[in-house]
Amino acid sequence: MFLDETNLALGLAIVFYMAIHFGNRYIHKYAKIFISVSLLIVTLVIFIDLNQVNKLIESGHISLAIFLLVMFASTFGKRNTFYKKILLVRGDLSIIGFIFLLPHAIKQLSLALYGYNFTGIIAMLIMFPLTISSFMTIRKKIRPDRWKKLHKLAYIAYIMIYIHIGFDFSIHQSNPYIFISQNSYLYHVLFAIYLISKIYFVIQKRHKLKIT
User: Fold this and answer.
1) What does pTM read for this prediction?
2) Chain Cα centroid distance, residue 138
3) Would you kindly state where each structural domain of the chain is located, as residue ranges?
4) Is 6 within 8 Å of 166 (Cβ atoms)?
5) Mind giving me the DSSP string for the chain?
6) pLDDT tens digits for the chain (212 residues)?
């Protein structure tokens, strides 16, 4: 199927964008409430068995769906509607996406330390300072040029996420291996589209700067 359990994040990304498209100002205005509710939900999931809720959040689909929106927003020009809708809540989305990543990271931590598909943990470690600096109170204390340089690390995190969901691999000396993850082909296509779009966007931006 086009959207099975493995590719659920794609469907969630569409649903989330629809909510952002029509309510981004509301989301941004009440960002603290959304962040607080996200923290509450994640805390409950970590300490209480909520059956299907745990399964959904611990799978990482919600977090991935949010980061897909944040990723692809950067491949569009400033006049694009998708970019403008995401831009207003981009920092808020990054914080919420990181919060929903926590249960997945905790669940998979032992496997990652064992050498299995550890790129997800690397992505999370990279995202930690990016998430902290996305809070406006912290961002205001950082020089804009340094803030932009810091957030370029997000591209490394995106690559780590791609490897994490696109491949099954282990570097454990007892049984090292690498395979393309089952049902991950859509994510390989998406990453290729993202990479091509990002390169094209950068080339176009540099070309405009030369003209001006």
Assistant:
1) 0.91
2) 20
3) 8-211
4) no
5) --S-STTHHHHHHHHHHHHHHHHHHHHHHTHHHHHHHHHHHHHHHHHS--THHHHHHHTTHHHHHHHHHHHHHTTS-TT-HHHHHHHTTHHHHHHHHHHHHHHHHHHHHHHHHHTBSTHHHHHHHHHHHHHHTTSHHHHTTS-HHHHHHHHTTHHHHHHHHHHHHHEEEE--TTS-EEEEPTT-HHHHHHHHHHHHHHHHHHHHHHHHHHH-
6) 344 566 899 999 999 999 999 999 999 999 999 999 999 999 999 999 888 899 999 999 999 999 999 999 988 888 899 999 999 999 999 999 999 999 999 999 999 999 999 999 999 999 999 999 999 999 999 999 999 999 999 999 999 999 999 999 999 888 899 999 877 888 999 999 999 998 988 888 777 766 65
Tokens for 98, please give them: 């990181």
